[in-house]
Design brief:
The protein is of the alpha+beta class. The protein contains six helices and twelve strands. The strands form two sheets. Strands 2, 3, 4, 5, 6, 7, 8, 9, 10 and 11 form a ten-stranded antiparallel β-sheet that branches. A two-stranded parallel ribbon has the order 1-12. It starts with 18 loop residues before the first helix and ends with a helix. Residues 38-58 are annotated as: Disordered. This is PknH-like extracellular domain-containing protein. InterPro entries: PknH-like_Extracell_sf.
Length: 282
């Protein structure tokens, strides 16, 4: 979870009078990753909370998601990703729409080939800006895909390194920062107000593609809130960062939009991992 370079999503300009500050709620997820030291069980199914907008969960059956996306069931060897293939690490828009049904309606996808870390006045605690840390490690390639809709958004970034050893060292830093930054507050020059990121329930797994995923809650200007999920995956000589967010809402004037509208954390992560398995075996 990290500090996001992302404008707001949801009901649109008429509902969001303070678009500049509200938008920066969504700017935080791609820059910070943090976790609680103990991971609570992944929430399953719809959340029935008064004043809360929810949809049924997508479920967290990884095998089912993998089968639906047509990914190989054979565990692939970690690939060496060439710079020319870096964008293939990112789940294309069609896969986002089919894998996460909340992303629907007037969909816009933005592509970028250079990282942008917004300037910050202060950060507390220090050294929790993972995007800035990765950008400073001498990566050999970068790609971003940001898929935005009224129902939420999915942002993906790929950081490419010279070899697997360099990527593993960088991923160890990600894990360390994730364990050290359960709550981060950043005062951005662009926002004019502090932006707060809280994460919990981090699940750190090993395997063909070591990965971590967590719940995230971002807030700005004390009222604008976005709930979602955040994760990192080590893929050979690359690190893929993904975040999925429900539409933002005003904590005092609008019903809560629970992250459950996206499905469970494990289900969203499964969509990302299934694509990476397919990439590695193609």
């Amino acid at each position: 979870m990290g500090a996001r370079r992302r404008p707001s999503v949801g009901a649109g300009p008429a509902a969001y009078g303070r678009a500049t500050r509200a938008g920066l709620v969504l700017v935080l997820g791609a820059t910070l990753a943090a976790c609680a030291t103990e991971a609570p069980a992944d929430s399953e199914g719809p959340v029935e909370t008064a004043g809360t907008t929810t949809l049924p969960s997508a479920g967290d059956d990884v095998a089912q998601v993998t089968a639906e996306l047509g990914a190989s069931v054979v565990a692939p060897a970690p690939p060496h990703v060439d710079p020319s293939a870096i964008r293939s690490l990112l789940l294309p828009e069609a896969g986002v729409l089919s894998g996460i049904p909340a992303i629907q309606g007037n969909v816009v996808t933005i592509l970028r080939d250079e990282p942008r870390v917004p300037p910050a006045n202060t950060q507390s605690p220090a050294d929790c800006d993972i995007a800035a840390i990765l950008a400073g490690l001498g990566t050999s390639g970068y790609a971003l895909q940001d898929t935005i809709s009224p129902g939420g958004r999915v942002q993906q970034e790929a950081h490419l390194f010279a070899d697997a050893a360099a990527a593993e060292s960088a991923y160890a830093i990600v894990q360390d920062r994730a364990a050290s930054c359960p709550t981060v507050t950043i005062d951005y020059v662009e926002a004019g107000d502090p932006i707060n990121v809280e994460v919990s329930g981090t699940v750190d797994t090993t395997g063909t593609f070591p990965s971590l995923a967590q719940d995230a809650r971002l807030s700005a200007d004390a009222y604008w809130v976005t709930e979602g999920y955040n994760g990192y995956v080590l893929v050979g000589n690359a690190i893929v960062h993904w975040s999925a967010d429900a539409a933002n809402y005003h904590a005092e004037q609008m019903p809560r939009v629970d992250r459950a509208v996206l499905g469970t954390r494990s289900a969203v992560e499964a969509v990302v991992l299934a694509h990476l398995q397919q990439f590695a075996t193609s």
